Amino acid sequence: MALNDTIPIVVGVTGHRDLRPEDSGILTAAVQKELEALRSACPHSRIVLMSSLASGADQLCAKAAKALSIPLIAVLPMALSEYEKDFSGQELETLRDLSFSAAECFTAPETEALPSAADRDFSYRQAGIYIASHAHILLALWDGKESPATGCGTAAAVQFALNSTYIPKNSLPLGGNCPVVHIQAPRICGKPDVAGEVRFLGERSSFDEILRRTDEFNRLSLETPASEEKLLPTDREPDPKLTLMESLYGKADALSLRFAGQYRRILAALAVISTGVTAAFLLYDEAELHWMILVCGFMLLLAWLIQHFGKRSSSHQRYLEYRMLAEGCRVQAFLRYAGSSTAVSDILPWSSRSENGWVASSLKVLAIGNAASVQHSICTPWVREQHAYHARSITRSKRTGKGSERIIRVALWISILLYFMVLIFELVFGGLLPVSLKIADTGFWRTLSKLLLGSISAATLFISNYYGRLSLSRVTSDHIRMERFYASVLDRIGRYGESEELLTMIAREELVENINWCSYQRENTADFNL
Question: What is this structure's pTM?
Fold first, then answer.
């Protein structure tokens, strides 16, 4: 999982144990075709297979992936020594070989509440739930027959992926978002159906968008140096997964800043052009410089090209989405550093899951695996640092707001001053009074005043609606609220210490704060009406 600083595309597996031996070649070819298709669709991403390594379909898919040099994550329903009791002969040897060569091998945690009479089927069900809820897509070597939702077989796993037909012990699932590639796989005791037919179950367009956006981020991350900010102490114990989370945070943070700068440059260019168009048209209309109409046309064309580039580059959308990914990685890194088993993807608000599916899926796959074996205090690296950050941000946002108001007042007073100058000019020289003074070339001074007043008014309009200014008061109030929140958390830690509930509460508050911030920034999207 930590081969490089990219988000893996995880393919889960479910299927029957009793496949017909004569279908082995056909099914292997179908599985490899689907894996190769994902590779082609995501050339900058790692494809990873996640399987329980059960007899039949699971082992067939694992061997097919191994032949394509695709890494394997083994999610076992129980400890390997106990799991081996369900195997014999060549299947047992295959289990041992695949589990030992897997990039990761761990026992699936209990997603559902442990029943009073837990059996092996319950453990198999938990493994199926884990794979279905942590994969981008599920390969189902399935005969298509339904079975009870309370079961642990292939049909139940398909429903876990599509409809989340399970009840987690800590929260409620919010609908399935893992599509399924159903590969027809008849069973030995079933009907003599044809093997290998493929159909897609789920929302194809949403899945394709998740793949595209994930691979796009991976492409950009490979060519972008990470930000130099360090989240956690560098003298900690080696943890490749934590290192990956911290690295991805740095990449997403750097990309978010890059596209934020690009978007602000686009807005600045549009502001300059809009002011220039106003001045050029006034010169054409008032000064009768007829060639200025060509300048107007050129500037309007340039404005259209810049706005078109802004839409094509999706700089504003990327800015917000990469910031959301960065914050999710940061929170997940702190949770893992603290030894928490909480996954950010499990507490991510519904609005984030629905609006940014690829970000939610990315955070979901980054949480795959066992929790960290060592627990650290997060009081200083997380709570104190965030308390200090929000305290600084309160001062900074208030200073920015005052500066913005000051600029607007200056621009407004310049406009008012120009107005009164024009008014005095018209009263004294323009003939508004019964007795007026005569001045040579009154038209020149009148045209000049119109140019100045029109250009200053256009510039003032832009400044008063500058990107981010409209949400400054809301951002400031959020910083005040979060500063108080972290002050109360520090007090609670001092009184009662750190706990899993406290860590989850901090994580949830940070995610909500980030969503609020993104909603403010979406309101600042450029609205350039020529």
Answer: 0.85
